[in-house]
Design brief:
disordered C terminus, mannose-ethanolamine phosphotransferase activity, transmembrane, eight-stranded mixed sheet, alpha/beta, membrane
Amino acid sequence: MFKLNRAVKQLVVKSVLTSLIAITSIQAILFYKTLSFVFLKEDILKKSTTNAVNPFLEDQKSWLVGTSDDKMLFIVIDTLGYYLAKPNLSILSQIQEKEPNNTIYLKAKTDSLTVTGPRLLSLMTGTNPTIMDLIQNVEHSEEIKIDNIPSKMKAANKTIYFIGDDTWVKLFPTSFTYFTDMQSFNIFSNGREDEHMINQINKWLDKENNNEDPVDMIISHFLGMDHIIHSTNDIHSSNLAQEYDLFNKFIEDLINNQPNRTIVICSDHGVSLRASHGGDSQEETETFFFVYRKKGFAKNQPITQQLMADIPNYPINNLLSRVQCNQSDKKQQCGQFEGMLQVDVAINLSNILGLSIPYSSLGMVWPIFNNQYKEGDTEEESKFKDTVARNTYTALKQQISYVMENQVYKDKIGEKNIFNFLSQEKVIDELYKEFLKDNTVQKLKILFEKCFDLNEYRQMSILRIQMMKPRKQIKLI
C-alpha cells in the first residue's frame, strides 16, 4: 500500500486547510454580498425641502403645513415597553385623563430589530432598519446620512441640546448645537446617570425661563432602566421602582412648568419577560408614544373622528398586515385608534415642528396631531380640511418619488407591482383634485383612506424586499 511520508502529509493537510479557508472566505464574501443585496436599502441621500411635490398647489413654498412653532422636549426612555410603561408611569395616563384634548398617548409598534441604533434610525428618519443596521449597532453605529429630523432642524437654523446615550452623537455627529453624552454600554451604573440628566435638563429649562440661551429642541435619552434590567437580568428589580418614581415626578413637573414646549416621551424598544431585547416578541416590539401640548390637538374633534373611524388599529402581533376595516370580521379593531407604527413618528414630529418630512420616511401623517380648529367656524373647518388633505397627499407623493428613485426597490418589486403602484398614484391624484373642488369631509375621507391603503401597500412591498419573505398584499379598492 502506498504511504505518504510525514513531510508530504503535512503539505497535503496544509493545502487542504488553505483550500478550505479560501472557500470559506469566498463563501463569507458571497454571504456578505447576499446580505447586502437582501437586507441593505439603497440609501437615497436626497433631502426633502419646502419645495412642493404637489402639482395642484399654487403656493409651492411650504407643502407640509406644520402644526406648531413651539419648542420641543423629546425624551426617550430606553427599554421601556408599553406593558411596563402603562402601569408604572402612571402619570401619563393621569395626564391623558385630566387633559384629553392636550394629550396623545399611543402604542407604537416596531419591527423585530429591537436594539437602540436601528430604533433611533426608525424614530428620526421614518425608515425600517435592516439586519445590516443591527450589525452597525453592535459596531457602535455609523453616522446616519439619509434625511433625518436632527439634520433638518440644523438646516432650518434651529438649535438642539442633546443629553444621554452617546449613540445619538455617533449617529448625528454634526446636528447638535450642544451635547452631553453618556456611555451606552456602561450597564453597571444602576440608573444613577438618570438623576444627573434630569438635573441638567432642569438647568437648561431654567436658563430658558430666564431668557438665557434658549434652544429650540432638547433631546434626552435615558439609559438607567436599560442598565438596571441588563445588570440584574430582572424586569421586576427593586431598583426599577426608584426609576419609575423618578420619571413620574420629572414628567409631572414638566407638564406643570413648561407651558410653551411640546413634550414628547417615548421608548426605543421594549424588553422581553426574560429581561432581554433584540427579538420580535410583543413585549419587545410594542413601545409607547406620548405627546403633550397646552394648545391641544384635533384628535377628539368631529372631522378628525370621521376620518379615523374606519382606520384600523395595528394588529398587535403583526407589523406587516394592518387589516382593513371593511372586513366584517375585523370591525372590532376599528373606530378607536390606539396604536401607530414607529415609522410614523418621524413624519408626525416633522408636522408638529413645521419641518418637511425626512425624504425616505415610510410613515403616515395622522390628523390627530394637527392643531385644533374652532368647531362651527366654516373658515377654520375648511382650513383644517385643506391642511389634512395637503399633508396626506403631498407626503405620499414624496414617498412614491422616493420608491421610484430607489433602484433596489424597483428591481425587486417587479414591473407588475410598479405598474399597479403608479396606476394607484393616478387614482390619488384624481381624488385630490376632486377634494379641491368642493372641500367636503366625505371627499377628504375617501382621499385619506386611499392614501392609507397605498401607504400600507408601499410599506409592505419595501419590507418584503428587505426581509425576502412572501407577504400578503393589501387589495387596493
